[in-house]
Amino acid sequence: MDFKDYYVSLGVSPDADAKTIKKAYQKLAKKNHPDVNPGDKAAEGKFKDAMEAYQAISDPEKRRKYDELRQDYQQWKQRGGRGDYNYDRWQSNPGRGGGGSRTQTMSPEYFAEMFGGTGRSGSGGSGGEGYSDFFSTLFGGGGQDRGYSGGSTVGRARAGQDHETDVQVTLEEIYKGTTRLIRTGEKQIEAKIPKGVRTGSKVRLTGQGGPGISGGPGGNLYLNITVSPYGHFVRDGDDLRADLPIDFYKAILGGEVNIFTFAGEVILKIPALSQSGKIFRLKGKGMPNLEKPLQYGDLFLELSIVLPENMSEQEVTTLRDLADKRL
């Protein structure tokens, strides 16, 4: 059985105070959490090592025992460390959870959540349903211990963790609603994106988050939605706004313009003598309302006059004559 230096596991000095130890543990647990590193066995091992180390040296009674063992072990190494180190004097009564000291630093539900409720062993061996052999030898971990390794309360049903992921969709897609293939852990699901969602919307997929514990329901998966622009449309709530460029002939004489909308192409009549900046409203041609999907906003078009390209000399002369007559 290998000696485990819990101070090295947490990256703290042997004289570190409780606050420093807790902070180091939280940093390592967050960095190496299985949800952050799915399928990464190395990260999972570091996560379990940090968890076990925190269990050992965050509890004053266990820390005193561990520090005495650590000092004795180091002295044995300095004397040459021949043969195998004798752990007999440090061995805990397996049925007593560390000689009467139960492991209760973190709740059983939290332990089950961290390890998926599987009761798998730690990185150092198979003892203690989650502990390494080293930890189990010193502090127990089987039998009646209910704070870390199992016991009757670990079977309590609990919902799985909620997860989040970012999803980008286009304005055109959410006019009718769309779907996305989302990979979460080792599974792939087809997520339905409702029409009318906006940037900042959260779509909840019930039960598609982390697995439930001891028969509890799965957590939820939340999709954080970002809607990318489409063409010349600008979204304003459920309304859409866009520029409508026309040449000055049509602005003066009037005419018809084909307008693209997400509902299909429509024909807009331009009155004669229309000024630049005039606003046209196409009712119900905007975006669907998220809460009332049968209700649509409007499309607002702002007219802008542009000169025709490649005007002939005759056209320019005619316009000049017209301008002279207006003086």
| Largest sheet entry | 4 strands, mixed
Strand content: 15-25%
The CATH topology of the largest domain is given as Helix Hairpins
| Strand numbers in spatial order across the main sheet | 6-7-11-10
Q: Give the averaged pLDDT, no decimals.
A: 80
Uncertain spans: 94-129, 142-155
- CATH homologous superfamily grouping of the largest domain: DnaJ domain
> What is the name of the CATH class of the largest domain?
Mainly Alpha
Share of helical residues: 25-40%
Query: Strand-and-helix sequence, N→C?
Result: HHHHHHEHEEEEEEHEEEEH
Count helical runs.
9
CATH-derived architecture of the largest domain:
Orthogonal Bundle
Spatial separation of the terminal alpha carbons: 105 Å
Q: Output the radius of gyration.
A: 35 Å
The number of domains:
3
Shape designation = elongated
Count every beta strand, where a strand is a DSSP E run of 2 or more residues. Answer: 11
